[in-house]
Amino acid sequence: MREVAIVGVGMTPFGELWDLSLRDLIVASSLKAMDDAKVDTVDSIYVGAMSSGLFNNQEHLASVAADYLGMVGVPATRCESACISGAVALKAAYLDVASGYSDIVLVTGVEKMTDVSGDKAVAGLSTASDDEFESYQGMTFPGLYAMIARAHMEKYGTTRRQLSLVSVKNHNNALKNPYAQFKLKMTPEAVESSVMVADPLHIMDCSPISDGAASVIIAPLDIVKERFKDHRIVKVLGLGHATGSIALHTRPDITNLDAVEKAGERAYKYAEVAPSDIQFAEVHDCFTIAEICELEALGFCAKGEGGKMTERGDTMPDGKLPVNVSGGLKAKGHPVGATGVAQIIEVTEQIRGDAGDRQLKDVNIGMAQNLGGSGGSSIVTILKGE
Amino acid sequence: MREVAIVGVGMTPFGELWDLSLRDLIVASSLKAMDDAKVDTVDSIYVGAMSSGLFNNQEHLASVAADYLGMVGVPATRCESACISGAVALKAAYLDVASGYSDIVLVTGVEKMTDVSGDKAVAGLSTASDDEFESYQGMTFPGLYAMIARAHMEKYGTTRRQLSLVSVKNHNNALKNPYAQFKLKMTPEAVESSVMVADPLHIMDCSPISDGAASVIIAPLDIVKERFKDHRIVKVLGLGHATGSIALHTRPDITNLDAVEKAGERAYKYAEVAPSDIQFAEVHDCFTIAEICELEALGFCAKGEGGKMTERGDTMPDGKLPVNVSGGLKAKGHPVGATGVAQIIEVTEQIRGDAGDRQLKDVNIGMAQNLGGSGGSSIVTILKGE
Q1: Among A377, A340, A380, A383, which residue's Cα sits nearest to residue A86?
Q2: Do B59 and A50 touch (CB under 8 A)?
Q3: Burial of residue B275, with CB atoms counted within 10 A of its CB: 0-12 exposed, 13-18 middle, 19 or more buried
Q4: Mind telling me how many Å the CA of A281 is from chain B's nearest CA?
Q5: Is A140 left (phi over 0), alpha (psi -120 to 50) or beta?
Q6: For B154-213, what is each residue's pLDDT tens digit?
Q7: Does A311 lie in the same domain as A214?
Q8: How many structural domains does chain A have?
Q9: What ipTM does the predicted assembly reach?
Q10: Domain carrying residue A139
């Protein structure tokens, strides 16, 4: 397999983007990444999107991307795995380059969720759960994660305040991210007095409905060293992918995100690193409890210690493992298909030293962890500066 | 890149399968392919499906597949490109194996279209066209292909009878296919007296709404030679993928399927063969006119000669290039995401000598050509027996 590096990144702001259509978002972020890489065409395109059918009446989205980017003819594939649609698109692109089939490849994650009403957006998102056993019965994601949170509290003594601290950290991190959907100075009291969505989760525990797109350009490391000499090279050191039970009721322990644990183990093995080698991480905080479970599943702390690790401040920008310096899904926003790619962008920019006001000091190896549904799939990607 | 071979195939019957759910279809065809390959697990799963969101309220479909196949944990990705969703899934799986990342990989194409009413199925299918310029304006696929047919008749003198002969051939071929949706002895008069859908296309020019799934197992050639010694080896000799304009109005000439032409050129180049080396083909006859345009785009005849080639009987099972011996989409059925994989199965079975009553004599190299939307994407795959 060829080694693969990231040579260009670009994204739109995340938010309620009323004046940009689905295809506008794809074009805007793709062109930014191509500008950043200084390429004017690519050999192949991958689009990550969860449900452009339900949200925008548009399947066949990768061909729309090729067409509206002025690259008719270029092979284009859409990949989907609910909230890890961006990461599966990156993985497919990575294998395309690693195999030697393509050299310069564009990956764009996108979701335009505000074209439909809020209830239709929630119903659309629910198709990431098990239709027969969950969504058809009326279950939505806040309900699923509320059950996980409640079980985590019961089993490990995780507190309401620890959940709040995830939201507080991520919102306060987002104050330094110009692309973030929300710029709100957050306090635990504000989280806990916000409207209850599904006990124990308040609305300030939940990531929002968002529009946005994020793109990266990847290429084989040998070509990058030859053709992209003035780029700070960030290479894909390891990538692990795993599925988990699609529904909660078939899992042995709903507090354990098995897919994250397996994907993490595979990524560490591939990259030949340990959790202690990771200097910072973007993890999938679709709900505050998810970040806590992920810290555990990724081996950053023992089982049940995610809340305490948060409370100690270890995951703060000045902590021993900064987590979601970008603001995470909670505050940066969560246009579903874009999220996995946006995480890769944050890690790349931090390693490059391009992260502006939120730049971490002396980081060279970071992780992006993307989660599908209530844990039905996960991809963990480890990036390293050359 | 590692060479890749097909070591297992399996499919469900195509049709209105009222007693099988979406996940039942995936499991049934996947297990058949695994039985055929004599494997009890795989390293990775790819699912091709166009719109399980709109048809079945179920995205995150690859994780459903892993779960219901009893393979929770195995990485699983869904790929989509409208009617070539099956072929893009196969391509992604092919690159996964070719790269060296995975060894034994399952590819399942599926669509369960009868869970929704006919008008919702048509609306769902329309999301494969350009939403802003076509489907939102009320255009459906019979209308788009009717314009292509009319233009082809005007430019090249293609006749109504030539269109009918595509349908007659494919329906009569399907009489020998136990998995085909329709078993109807067809005549030109029956086609031409069937109900008009979009002038000049009658319903007997149109492929149906179908349920079904089709699966293949692929593996690297060196492992196949070692571990699958009693298998008749069919290898992927070449694979070409291209996009075309998503909407008709931006194409220089709507009678020319540019995506098919480019995908074909790429596949021939990759495989180091010429059109004259292809002994038989499965092509994407979603409408009769599509088969005629594809014969031309793939270089099997000159531009404008597809109708005449059909009328001469060249594409009959005993002709110089048998086309759609399986019955094609027209008669075998067209569960959208399954089609690209089912085409690969037909070509594989013919090369293996497993095609039963419809077995062609002495064939060792065949083509599968899958088409997305009205020509927004195409993949051409060339298979060869070792």
Answers
A1: A340
A2: yes
A3: middle
A4: 22
A5: beta
A6: 999 999 999 999 999 999 999 999 999 999 999 999 999 999 999 999 999 999 999 999
A7: no
A8: 2
A9: 0.98
A10: 125-207+238-385
